[in-house]
Here is the input.
Amino acid sequence: MSIVILLTLLYVGLATTSPIEDELNWNISQIGALGALPFTPEMIAEIGYKEIVYDENVKIPEEFDARRKWPKCTSLKTIWDQGHCGSCWAVSSASAMGDRYCIRHKGNVMLSATDVMSCCKDCAPNGPCQGGYTSKAWKHWNTIGVVTGGPTQCSGCTCYRISLLKCDHKCRRGYKKSYSSDLTHGRPVKLLVNNVEVIQREIMTNGPVVATFQVFTDFVNPGKGVYIHKSGVSRGYHAVRVIGWGSKKVQGKRVPYWLAMNSWGKKWGDKGLFRILRGSNHCQFESMMVAD
Here is the structure.
């Protein structure tokens, strides 16, 4: 079956310095995503339409967790902490890129959010800690490339940091490969738009995707439940890595959910993960998913 989908662009962001998980009192106005730059017809025209074909003979399971299907990928087990920096657009993208690179090439590496933040010149118009376009991050991976890296302590070319960002095309001191030889590349960017089956087949076939969704003040800490927005004001948009789906009994009824990895440290949510209502584009969660 051929499914035609349309690509859109988005803008997501947060704040400045130190690990978020060190916060004792969660305040979504401080750690939540702030601001959004909606897609434009020009951006859509630039990327255009994509046709995606999946094997319909493969049954979609009731539950799926990418960590179980690809257990050898270290990146899939890693919860990032972006600190007080609006870099969710880069962190979620780089972490999912690393997942998909590992799955595709059977190479157990993580990719560098810092490289994306430093070297993608049109990703973040107001600065890398003030939000950016996830789709442009993925386009950057395809056209320019992204080096290896990971969180603050990493074994790759460029580890995560939010200060002194400079695209100098150099790996950290002591790293054995050159920047140019360390570059990895992805496929052309695509957006998975408002189609649960397409999103599920993409994740179970190629690995995690990145979702941008609207954040409200009641998203402070959903714990192990299924997040359903009920009250509070909008704080803008946030980007996260989506690794699977399932359902959970809530007040006697089975509630379908997406399983996602946040980038606010392991103390947030369910050890860094959360579940959000699936199937109704809740908080626009299903309308702005990107992958390669």
